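Protocol step 4 of 6: structure prediction from sequence.
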Amino acid sequence: MLRKVMLLGLFLILLSACSSNTFTFNGETNNWSATLKVTQHSNDYEDQEFKLEYQGDDVSAVGDITFEVDTNAGGFAGSGYTLSENGVLNIDNEANPTNAKIIENSEVEVIVEWNDNMETIILTSD
């Protein structure tokens, strides 16, 4: 009986060590929609999956994209990206334990520049 209790306790410890918290931010404008999915792991690492999607019809006319994602924890940016054939750009980012963490109910600002145009997209959590 003691052995079963000890195994159950060990299982619960391992299960809690592998836990994570996931939340998503979404927003859109006339030209763009954006999603930032954040997964915070119990080891203090944070995965950030950013998706930017063009809402227009002529994806080939967009050209190079520059973007900036600003969060309460700093952010990340990129330039010289092009969209896939279906008008999507996916970026994966990982924050290590020394980086500040994104707060679930914060607001995220995304700035997109393309063809001498610029738009700001405000993302809010679901």
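Step 5 (inspection) to follow. The radius of gyration is 19 Å.
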